[in-house]
């Protein structure tokens, strides 16, 4: 009997990380299964054969998508040809809704079952998409606690499996204090900067973040800052402009920075929830192109942009969006976190409460069991 084949589609870095853990969990149970994917280094290392790499597919915002339409068309055609050739037994979609929901429809027409792992955030915007999710998926495996009930109310077969970040954090141990890359010293403030994993995000956020820490340096002369560099990001030009010995440019050190920093200034995204799991105080910022921001104001239906605030359904961490994401506001909030011990303790307690709602470790294993059950 021929080996089963699963096709997985994940268009961004966070999806590739969770997809990589999922591929490992599947192949641990059934090593003979063939897996092809739109993914990245994590999925490739785990044993998936890549059709496209996420460095080609990771862009966001309405204006950015419009600019990439010719590429998206080529990606679409090649993906359908691949699916028609391999005729997978199951397709697993990971977030990336603009592309994946269309793929779900095309795959369903080919009588191939579809599982959506890491639901599109249709509860936040473009809620009409829930009709497509209901029609073109067998089950949606949710990673945020409030998603299951929301989707079920709209007729979707949904199941909360816990958040896969719990597995990653569980594996991490305290790093030694003599690891100078993790933290130069423990006597003085240490701030982590996370400008984002996409080129457009870095261009909009990093200059603001750098200006912020330069201003904070006047209040905290011994301050050090670490910039998280996304795996496929080239920041050489920025590094040449900022050669100060107190600014550290670190690639593949996200968890070290999160664990050791006194404060994180972060672009909105999955990384903010990772930081929450470390219970490190943070400030969330985000800037979009003007047209993307205007359209977002019309379409977005949630009161917060950070996952921690959404999960708690209250504002426990500060969010600064668009013109409010400026050095004056960020410096004010950062100084408050660094100098006001009561304010800092309240934020840490808030993050602890968020963590308790994210389910038990073992998400990738649970998802692998459900997927293999469909085969």
Task: Walk me through this protein's architecture.
With 375 residues, this protein is α/β, with parallel strands linked by helices. The chain folds into 2 domains: 5-163 and 359-374, 3-Layer(aba) Sandwich (Rossmann fold), CATH 3.40.50; 190-355, Glycogen Phosphorylase B (Rossmann fold, 3-Layer(aba) Sandwich), CATH 3.40.50. The protein has helices at residues 13-29, 41-46, 62-67, 69-86, 97-109, 130-136, 147-153, 165-170, 199-219, 236-241, 254-260, 270-277, 290-299, 307-312, 327-339, 341-355, 363-374; strands at 5-10, 34-39, 49-53, 90-94, 114-117, 139-142, 158-160, 190-194, 224-229, 247-251, 263-267, 282-286, 319-321. The protein is globular, with a radius of gyration of 21 Å. Mean pLDDT is 88; it is low at 173-178.
- What is the CATH architecture descriptor of the largest domain? 3-Layer(aba) Sandwich
What do we call the CATH topology of the largest domain?
Rossmann fold
Distance between the termini: 13 Å
The number of distinct helices, counting runs of at least 4 residues, comes to 17
Count of the separate structural domains: 2
The class by helix and strand makeup works out as alpha/beta
CATH class membership of the largest domain: Alpha Beta
Order of neighbouring strands in the sheet with most strands:
3-2-1-4-5-6-7
What integer value in Å does the Rg equal? 21 Å
Q: State the shape.
A: globular
Helix content: 40-55%
Poorly predicted segments: 173-178
CATH superfamily name of the largest domain? Glycogen Phosphorylase B
């Amino acid at each position: 009997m021929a080996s089963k084949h699963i096709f997985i589609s994940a268009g961004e870095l966070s999806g590739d990380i969770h997809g990589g853990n999922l591929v490992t969990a599947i192949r641990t149970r059934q090593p003979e299964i063939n897996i092809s994917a739109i993914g990245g280094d994590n999925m490739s290392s785990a044993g998936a054969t890549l059709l496209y790499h996420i460095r080609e597919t990771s862009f966001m915002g309405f204006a950015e998508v419009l600019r990439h339409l010719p590429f998206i068309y080529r990606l679409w055609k090649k993906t359908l040809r691949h699916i028609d050739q391999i005729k997978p037994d199951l397709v697993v979609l990971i977030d990336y809704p603009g592309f994946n929901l269309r793929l779900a429809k095309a795959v369903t027409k080919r009588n191939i079952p579809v599982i959506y792992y890491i639901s599109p955030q249709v509860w936040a915007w473009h809620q009409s998409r829930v009709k497509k999710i209901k029609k073109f998926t067998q089950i949606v495996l949710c990673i945020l606690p409030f998603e299951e009930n929301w989707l079920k109310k709209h007729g979707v077969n949904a199941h909360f499996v816990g958040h896969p970040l719990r597995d990653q954090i569980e594996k991490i141990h305290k790093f030694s204090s003599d690891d100078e890359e993790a933290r130069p010293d423990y006597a003085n403030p240490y701030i982590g900067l996370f400008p984002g994993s996409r080129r457009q995000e870095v261009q909009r956020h990093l200059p603001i973040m750098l200006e912020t820490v330069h201003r904070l340096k006047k209040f905290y002369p011994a301050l050090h800052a670490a910039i998280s560099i996304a795996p496929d990001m080239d920041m050489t030009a920025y590094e040449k402009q900022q050669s100060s010995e107190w600014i550290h440019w670190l690639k593949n050190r996200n968890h070290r920075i999160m664990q050791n920093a006194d404060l994180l200034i972060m672009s909105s995204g999955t990384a903010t929830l990772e930081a929450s799991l470390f219970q490190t105080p943070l400030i969330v910022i985000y800037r979009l192109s003007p047209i993307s921001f205007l359209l977002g104001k019309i379409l977005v239906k949630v009161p917060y942009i950070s996952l921690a605030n959404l999960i708690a359904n209250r504002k426990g961490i500060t969010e600064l969006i668009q013109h409010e994401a400026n050095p004056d506001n960020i410096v004010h909030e950062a100084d408050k976190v660094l100098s006001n011990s009561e304010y800092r303790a309240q934020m840490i307690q808030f993050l602890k409460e968020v963590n308790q709602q994210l389910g038990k470790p073992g998400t990738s294993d649970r998802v692998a069991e459900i997927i293999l059950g469909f085969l």
